[in-house]
Structure to design on (1321 residues):
């Protein structure tokens, strides 16, 4: 079997996920044994026509982005979206919560027409996505897991349980015990609960678990002293495209 | 002599973010020589609007993955000033070490992985794995070591976790810190020595081009300023950080979704070379030796030498963090709860040096501790006008070389600034109407 | 003298100070590795290998992970395999003596439940190897808001399963010799100690009874509340995080996954704690899920504690450690659910009578 | 106190078996013939399953579709639906796989002696039932009428064409097949499997019914059987749940207080009626 040809592309994002791959120092050489990197603008000049696997970082937010993503999809056998921006719209999508005009004008004033922008969307809003690697930034072990699975020709496991599960497996002190709040109970795991492990609350960077009890989550935050509006804002940091967050009715006292 | 030239480098590689180089000469007249910033703007102000002070650094960190630590530090310092949150000496030392680590890692990444292939005439670092394995391995080790500083102290090098307003959510163990320090002393010093020797042998690959400009950085009486200081212009002297708007004078140009800046001249430069020019006397001795070995002496007006200045800083940061760790370890690391009870509300302005230059964050908070006004000025934005000016001087000087050679030199020029484009288009500058 | 006091008074006992307890730990450390509660954060405790006896916390409400972590580790490699040549090896599970020190009575009771689960039907070698030579030194504790083990029939001073037991008194502790193993452990430690012959009197009950019915009646309540509205009530606020499962002393469900190394050749088959409160736990082929709703998941969890295995093992599988309640991010308390079920059941009975 | 000194089991270590034959049945189903190391007999009962594993690809429960009366080699029919089963479809004769088991209760054919047996098989549900069908055919004299009803979504999904031919040709077997959607050349019954039931003439008291199929099928088949007045005690179902261990520990296959891997997969219908979460 010849080595899979893989490529990386970046859209609207902080490029932290790209950088995270360059931070694979210890594994980089073994990785190069496993695959051929044929395109990676942030690190190399080469380009290619087709790819076995295309990894997409960043969200789609301009007409140019849309054209590019269609083009990449056409040439890629497998397409993986990488990181919260690509999977969920990420923090970028918070801008959708405000009227587009206000946003443009706020930054560029009367020059706003120079730089067209559209509502921020995840990659899956435009093209078929085969696998998703969440996280802000994506976790390198998970990236390697998906890559190895693809090399072996099997579906990678993608977790759909709460961060609390991993947090408990690590026996981290629960930040709730320290009087903080946490989105871990409704946020998707896969990060090995790094934030609580480092004493910080979970911001829900991987989005919510599917089938999440959002009303319950709002109630949970209220229990920790937040207003209902503040609670929804907290849940929206990474999941602003999740309409249920504004809709779910919370009957919690 | 060539009369016409058209260069259009679409999505310049080996830089962070999306930019195009456009040069256009007609009948011997240079019509255009500019770096077009085509990155999609991200509108961070919309993300910050109404956000609580506890979340602001988490969000601004996402402006840029490469400079995430720098953004967090600037953000936390601005928030702390606005809310009157005092931080301890221990916190300041830890943040300084983190700043050293981030500068060390980013400069290494740029100099050795993104810029170095130019000197060795290849398109990326990957072919070097076969031709220069020992160099690549040493570079990888250095980068890992730099990232480990971030991992050990802030939980994660990209989008650090433990840095919060008022301090740290968790502190490194003394054992871990000792191990890390030992590695810096042995592994780190050995590898940087080796790398410097290699780069010194390639010195003739650096184009000779000079254009004197204004150099702006932080400066401090205590140390080679990275974490903190006052603004310093090589032309006009020092200014308090609060006066930053008078220095940056941002303006919008049509070819860039990032704003440009100018102060005393038509443009100014920030970054490693600016810091070196302004503060070189405060480098640690070993860094001074490295500068000498690599042929860098102040003042240096060759922007291509920015990459060399970055390596000098790597040496400095290794030495500096070893020294700071000594201080921490001799005092003993004490558990402290972060101070997060605001003493006031209002405006806070802070500056810090990130690898690419001086970074400003400016916030105003309401009485709920939520953001009402935010502004954030990023180094690459400040460099853009200077890059355009460099190109305008450079193109006529090399106009008789082949088009490929010109293109290559222009690419190298832009790259040597280590531009961080995604950063530059995420600026905030907005006043919110209070709800 | 009540029955419990009578039982305790049959054991040989010594009066020792807290200082002596530390010396005891040092003494035990010479015999085998000792695991005991330690501080693990601002307000958390966990069982760890003892390095210094002064690090051991003697009075604590509960550790975060229950003692099951030593017998059914949160993550355990079951096999190491080679994909290319289809071979594997099973990592050796050492059968060693380990001393667990400062263990509460409900924790010991939970192990009895796990013993049942791992020896009934198929007798799992991994669990049994770890469990075989374990020695336990119990300690009494001050129940907090979330504890309710008395309500499920487990006294603070219950000594069953322990080899030695430390009973707190006003000056220090009574050290009780429970088993022959325990007695032998004290060889070389108690040389200067004289058995205390004074009759032991327990302090009046410190436990508030937190469940309305006697524990013997609970399984029968569960015969009638399967369709209760109470499940919906809690499902509304439960967020399905699974914390209550993962930290439960008697939960033992797991997942098994194959993980491969970067050479795409070596790998391991690893098991992880799992939980029936999690969204996809009971999903079946075609995406169907017979326990999709939180109400059904909550119901299943409680039936597992009070009815299902209970019928066969004749033990309630909730030991009242209070972990599920203490760590629940929305503050759902096990005893509240049970009391609501009891109330619902009573109401139904009343209605039926009329 | 539990006696920890008693013998224990290495529950999760598979035996490495060899695939001796692969037969493509449909686009998504293949049949595998397997040889245990040393050509050891599996000693299974019809209706039992094994945990099949491929290193790096995981494990899954697969029913044994051959009868224990047919020698030491055994057969599995596998539908490619995921990690393990997709990989299995790439294997060929001589490849090795891991086997644990047999697990589960299986059917007790001894208890069906002298009875008429009605097999209701939906889709891949024919695979586990084939094991029992073959068993009863190999001991034909022990049983009364043998009636096989088989339904699939469309003709291209029909499993075991060879066996079906034999069943159709045998005088002592009553066989009927139906498809949900017919193709051009299909001449047989069209309609869901329940359409085959009303027309049957049965000695209801003396007929044992075994039902295996996708989850949705059970409710409808049971309704039809009720229409036929088949006593509940005469009905057996085989249920499917995801499993991680196969030995009654992992909890995934639990239906109320029963474990499919221990108390099932074959359930007596009266028991199923007490299990709210079963179907
Ligand atoms: C007693 C018994 C007998 C069986 N007999 C047979 C048989 O004879 N032949 C046969 O082919 N099958 C049989 N099965 C079914 C077989 O075990 C399943 O199809 C098996 O799980 C496939 O494993 P896999 O690794 O290939 O698929 P998996 O990768 O586990 O995926 C199976 C399906 O579930 C989906 N899925 C997986 N994980 C998740 C998740 N976390 N969330 C949502 N969806 C998910 C997948 O997309 C896929 O559609 C039997 C099952 C039981 C319980
Ligand atoms: S810290 Fe957060 S993620 Fe961890 S257990 Fe507590 S609530 Fe869950
Ligand atoms: S811990 Fe609480 S919120 Fe989480 S699953 Fe259990 S009951 Fe629900
Ligand atoms: S159900 Fe709750 S109280 Fe009972 S044993 Fe489990 S965690 Fe402890």
């Amino acid at each position: 079997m010849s080595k899979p040809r893989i490529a990386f592309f970046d859209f609207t994002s902080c490029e932290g996920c790209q950088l995270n791959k360059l931070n694979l120092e210890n594994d980089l050489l073994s990785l190069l044994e496993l695959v051929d990197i044929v395109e990676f603008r942030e690190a190399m000049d080469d380009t290619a026509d087709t790819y076995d696997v295309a990894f997409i970082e960043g969200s789609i937010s301009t007409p140019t982005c849309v054209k590019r993503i269609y083009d990449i999809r056409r040439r890629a056998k497998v397409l993986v979206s990488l990181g919260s921006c690509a999977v969920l719209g990420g923090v970028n999508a918070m801008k959708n919560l405000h009227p587009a005009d206000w946003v443009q004008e706020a930054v560029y004033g009367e020059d706003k027409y120079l730089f067209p922008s559209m509502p921020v969307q995840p990659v899956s809003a435009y093209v078929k996505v085969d696998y998703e690697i969440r996280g802000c930034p994506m976790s390198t072990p998970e990236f390697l897991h998906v890559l190895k699975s693809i090399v072996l020709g099997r579906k990678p496991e993608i977790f759909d349980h709460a961060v609390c599960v991993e947090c408990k497996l690590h026996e981290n002190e629960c930040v709730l015990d320290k009087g903080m709040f946490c989105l871990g109970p409704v946020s998707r795991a896969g990060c090995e609960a790094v934030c609580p492990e480092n004493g910080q609350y979970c911001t829900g960077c991987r989005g919510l678990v599917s089938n999440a009890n959002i009303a319950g989550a709002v109630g949970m935050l209220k229990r920790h002293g937040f207003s209902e509006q503040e609670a929804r804002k907290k849940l929206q940091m990474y999941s602003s495209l999740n309409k249920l967050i504004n809709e779910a009715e919370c009957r919690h006292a | 002599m060539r009369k016409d030239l058209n260069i259009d480098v679409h999505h310049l590689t080996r830089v962070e973010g999306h930019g195009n180089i456009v040069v256009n000469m007609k009948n011997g007249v240079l019509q255009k020589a500019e770096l077009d910033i085509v990155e999609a703007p991200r509108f961070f102000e919309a993300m910050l609007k109404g956000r609580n002070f506890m979340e602001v650094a988490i969000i601004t960190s996402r402006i840029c993955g490469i400079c995430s630590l720098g953004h967090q530090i600037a953000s936390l310092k601005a928030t702390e000033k606005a809310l009157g949150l005092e931080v301890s000496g221990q916190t300041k030392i830890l943040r300084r070490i983190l700043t050293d680590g981030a500068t060390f890692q980013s400069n290494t990444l740029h100099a050795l992985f993104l810029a170095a292939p130019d000197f060795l005439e290849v398109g990326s670092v990957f072919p070097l794995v076969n031709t220069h394995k020992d160099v690549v391995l040493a570079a990888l080790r250095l980068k890992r070591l730099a990232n480990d500083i971030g991992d050990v102290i802030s939980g994660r090098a990209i989008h650090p976790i433990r840095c919060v307003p008022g301090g740290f959510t968790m502190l490194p163990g003394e054992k871990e810190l000792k191990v890390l320090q030992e590695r810096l002393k042995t592994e780190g010093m050995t590898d940087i020595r080796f790398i410097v020797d290699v780069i010194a042998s390639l010195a003739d690959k650096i184009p000779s081009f000079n254009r004197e400009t204004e150099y702006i950085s932080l400066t401090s009486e205590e140390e080679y300023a990275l974490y903190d200081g006052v603004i310093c212009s090589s032309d006009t002297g020092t200014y308090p950080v609060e006066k930053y708007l008078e220095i940056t004078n941002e303006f919008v140009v049509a070819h860039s979704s990032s704003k440009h800046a100018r102060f005393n001249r038509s443009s100014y430069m920030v970054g490693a070379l600016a810091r070196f020019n302004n503060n070189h006397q405060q480098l640690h001795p070993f860094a001074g030796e490295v500068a000498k070995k690599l042929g860098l002496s102040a003042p240096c007006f060759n922007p291509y030498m920015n990459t060399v200045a970055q390596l000098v800083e790597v040496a400095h940061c290794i030495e500096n963090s070893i020294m700071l760790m000594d201080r921490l370890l001799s005092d003993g690391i004490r558990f402290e709860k972060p101070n997060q009870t605001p003493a006031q509300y209002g405006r806070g302005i802070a500056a810090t040096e990130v690898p690419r230059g001086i970074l400003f964050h400016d916030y105003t908070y309401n009485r709920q501790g939520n953001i009402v006004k935010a502004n954030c000025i990023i180094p690459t934005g400040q460099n853009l006008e200077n890059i355009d000016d460099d190109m305008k001087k450079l193109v006529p000087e090399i106009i008789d070389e082949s088009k490929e050679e010109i293109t290559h030199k222009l690419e190298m020029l832009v790259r040597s600034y280590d531009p961080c484009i995604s950063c530059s288009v995420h600026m905030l500058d907005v006043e919110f109407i209070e709800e | 003298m009540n029955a419990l006091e009578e039982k305790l008074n049959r054991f040989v006992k010594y009066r020792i100070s807290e200082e002596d307890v530390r010396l005891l730990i040092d003494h035990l450390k010479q015999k085998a590795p000792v695991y005991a509660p330690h501080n693990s954060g601002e307000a958390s405790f966990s069982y760890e290998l003892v390095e210094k006896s002064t690090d051991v916390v003697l009075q604590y409400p509960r550790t975060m992970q229950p003692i099951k972590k030593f017998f059914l580790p949160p993550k355990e490699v079951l096999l190491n395999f080679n994909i290319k040549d289809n071979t594997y090896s099973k990592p050796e599970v050492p059968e060693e003596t380990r001393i667990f020190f400062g263990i509460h009575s409900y924790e010991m009771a939970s192990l009895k439940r796990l013993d049942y689960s791992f020896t009934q039907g198929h007798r799992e070698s991994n669990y049994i190897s770890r469990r075989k030579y374990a020695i336990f030194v119990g300690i009494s504790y001050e129940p907090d808001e979330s504890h309710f083990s008395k309500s499920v029939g487990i006294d603070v001073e219950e000594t069953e399963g322990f080899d030695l037991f430390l009973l707190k008194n006003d000056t220090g502790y009574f050290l009780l010799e429970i088993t022959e193993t325990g007695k032998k452990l004290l060889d070389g430690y108690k040389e200067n100690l004289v058995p205390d012959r004074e009759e032991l009197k327990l302090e009046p009950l410190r436990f508030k009874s937190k469940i309305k019915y006697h524990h013997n009646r609970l399984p029968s309540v569960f015969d009638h509340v399967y369709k209760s509205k109470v499940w919906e009530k809690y499902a509304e606020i439960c967020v399905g995080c699974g914390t209550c499962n993962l930290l439960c002393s008697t939960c033992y469900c797991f997942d098994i996954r194959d993980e491969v190394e970067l050479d795409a050749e070596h790998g391991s088959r690893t098991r992880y704690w799992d939980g029936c409160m999690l969204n996809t736990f009971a999903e079946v082929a075609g995406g169907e899920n017979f326990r999709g709703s939180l109400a059904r998941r909550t119901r299943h969890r409680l039936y597992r504690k009070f009815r299902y295995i209970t019928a066969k093992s004749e033990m309630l599988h909730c030991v009242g450690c209070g972990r599920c309640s203490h760590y629940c991010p929305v503050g759902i308390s096990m005893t509240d659910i049970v009391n609501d079920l009891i109330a619902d059941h009573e109401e139904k009975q009343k209605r039926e009578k009329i | 106190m539990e006696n920890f000194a008693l013998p224990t089991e290495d529950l999760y270590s598979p035996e490495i078996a060899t695939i001796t034959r692969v037969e493509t049945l449909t686009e998504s189903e293949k049949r595998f013939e397997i040889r245990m190391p040393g050509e050891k007999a599996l000693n299974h009962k019809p209706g039992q399953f094994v945990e099949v594993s491929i290193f790096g690809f995981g494990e899954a429960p697969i029913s044994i579709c051959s009868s224990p009366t047919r020698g030491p080699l055994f057969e599995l029919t596998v539908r490619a639906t995921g990690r393990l089963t997709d990989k299995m479809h790439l294997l060929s004769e001589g490849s090795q796989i891991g086997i644990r088991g047999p697990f589960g209760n299986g059917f007790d054919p001894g208890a069906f002696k002298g009875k008429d047996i009605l097999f209701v098989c939906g889709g891949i549900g024919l695979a586990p039932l084939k094991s029992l069908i073959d068993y009863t055919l190999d001991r034909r004299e022990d049983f009364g009428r043998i009636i096989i009803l088989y339904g699939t979504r469309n003709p291209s999904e029909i499993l075991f064409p060879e066996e079906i031919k034999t069943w159709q040709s045998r005088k002592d077997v009553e066989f009927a097949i139906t498809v949900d959607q017919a193709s051009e050349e299909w001449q047989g019954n069209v309609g869901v499997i329940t359409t085959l039931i009303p027309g049957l003439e049965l000695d209801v008291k003396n007929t044992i019914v075994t039902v295996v199929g996708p989850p949705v099928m059970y409710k409808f088949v049971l309704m039809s059987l009720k229409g036929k007045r088949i006593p509940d005690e005469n009905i057996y179902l085989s249920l499917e749940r995801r499993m991680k261990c196969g030995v009654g520990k992992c909890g995934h296959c639990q239906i109320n207080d029963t474990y499919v891997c221990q108390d099932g997969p074959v359930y007596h219908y009266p028991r199923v009626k007490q299990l709210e979460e079963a179907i």
